[in-house]
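Suppose you are handed only two things: the residues of a chain and a line of SMILES describing pyridoxal-5'-phosphate. What would the bound structure be? This form records exactly that question and the answer produced for it, so the two can be stored side by side and reused later without any lookup.

QUESTION INPUTS
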Amino acid sequence: MLTFPEFQSNLAVVRARMDEACRCAKRDADSVQLLPVTKNHGAFAPEFASVSGLTAVGENRVQEAQLKRKESSASVLWELIGHLQSNKVKDAVATFDRIQSVDSMKVLQRIDRICGEFGKKMPVLLQCNTGEDPNKYGFKVAQMESALELALNADHLEVDGLMTIAPLDNDPDVAKEAFEGLRQLRDDLAAKFSVALPELSMGMTGDLEIAIAAGSTQIRVGTALYGVRVY
Ligand SMILES: *Cc1c(COP(=O)(O)O)cnc(C)c1O
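ANSWER OUTPUT
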């Protein structure tokens, strides 16, 4: 298992990468938040993050997060960043503080309905498959306007912004195009609906610099903080 000093040194490296990327992009260092991705790591992972002053963690599976949240003493917000099946929406609403991976009209409406039953309001991001990658979830770019309209009219959802995952590709221009595409889409939708959509969740271990240059407000980082995941 990763030790706490190892985690702290990994964190320092990630922070330095973020600072340098912000400097190059002439952005304030505090304009980008680091979301540690704790999936496939035990309850120690959110605890290390929490003790280091990080305020939220990302998980991609409902059941795993449910268990970990119970086991861990971390005081963090829990964010869902993985595909949500409609039969897991109830558990997801009970477990997570924000859902970033809203990727279909059906799941969007179901989250809204169940939040209504629970008497709660859920912050969400709409996940867009900006790279049109057939292996990735997310709304198509052409669906985003109707998805946002539906989400803005939902009583129990609070739309914070947009999320994307770049296509798996060694060419950095492919990621750049996906991230710049999401930012442009956000700007267009925000203007069209007169809403802020402040959050742009994009960038991971391998492409965080490209995402920050394109305007990311939150990078989701697993491997660089916790090491390679063993499945
Ligand atoms: C696993 C995961 C990450 C973290 O990826 P790393 O390459 O390990 O930093 C980020 N976002 C999503 C949606 C993920 O599933």
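WHAT STANDS OUT: The first strand starts at residue 33 and ends at 36. Residues 22 and 29 are 6 Å apart (CA to CA).
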